[in-house]
Write the structure tokens for this entry.
Amino acid sequence: MNDGSILVMIWMVAAAVGTFVMLALYELGECFIQRVWLKSWGPRVYFAGRALIKGDVRVARK
């Protein structure tokens, strides 16, 4: 093999590994959104922000 074909093979392996990592991170992010953000953090941030905007400090401190 010459140097050009070795570089192409290395590039193809790197592209395959990068694709796998991107798909894995996408799946983990989707699980995080479904299990953590939508069930606990999301509503808490939403209602606290809404209370701060409206000026209801008692609700925002909970």
